[in-house]
Amino acid sequence: MNAARWIVAGVTLAAVGAAAVYAQYRQTEQPDFAVVSADEDFELRDYPALVVAEVSHSGSRERASGASFRRLAAYIFAQDRPAGGESIAMTSPVLQDETRPGEWRMRFVMPSKYTLETLPPAPSDITLTQMPARRMAAVRFSGNGSGRDLALMEARLRDWITTRGMMPAGEAEFAFYDAPMVPGPLRRNEVLIPVAAP
Description:
The protein has 3 helices and 9 strands, in the order αβββαββββαββ. By secondary structure, the protein is α+β, with helices and mostly antiparallel strands.
C-alpha cells in the first residue's frame, strides 16, 4: 500500500510539473525562428535580428551565470532604475557563451515590442545591442545543463553539422528555457552553433 501511494504521489508531482512547464511556455515570449530542416533532436533554424541586453562576468560558468542573471534581472525588473521605471517582461531562453577563456557573456532577449531606441536606458555595465539575423544549428536536450552535458551535446551538434556538409560560423552558445525550480527531466536546454548560409 505504501508503494502505491508513493507511485501516485510521483505521478501527481510529474503531472503538476508538466502543467507548470506548459503554462510557462505559453506565457513567456520566445524568439521567432524558421525551421529550415529537422532531424530528431537537431534543427537548422533561421533567426531574425534580435535585440538583447547582455553582461559579462569571469570565473566558472556556474558562478558567472548566477552573477549575470541577477544583474540582468535587476535591469529588466527596474530594480536599478528610478522608482516607477518600466519593468520589462522576462523572455526565454537565456543565452550564454564563452567570449574568451573564463569570460562568460549572458544575454536576455528583449520582448519583440522593443527596439534599441524604445528600451529603458541600461546601466554602464549592461550593453543593449541588436544581434544580426543568423542561421543556427541547434540540438535540444533535457536535464540541469551541467558543463558535462553541454560539452557532450556540443560535440554531438558539431558531428551533425559536419555530416551534413555545413560550416560553423562562430562558437557555441547555450540556451536555457526554464527557471531553476523546474525539475531537470522537464527542462529544455539547447546548444546552438551559427553556420554559414549556403
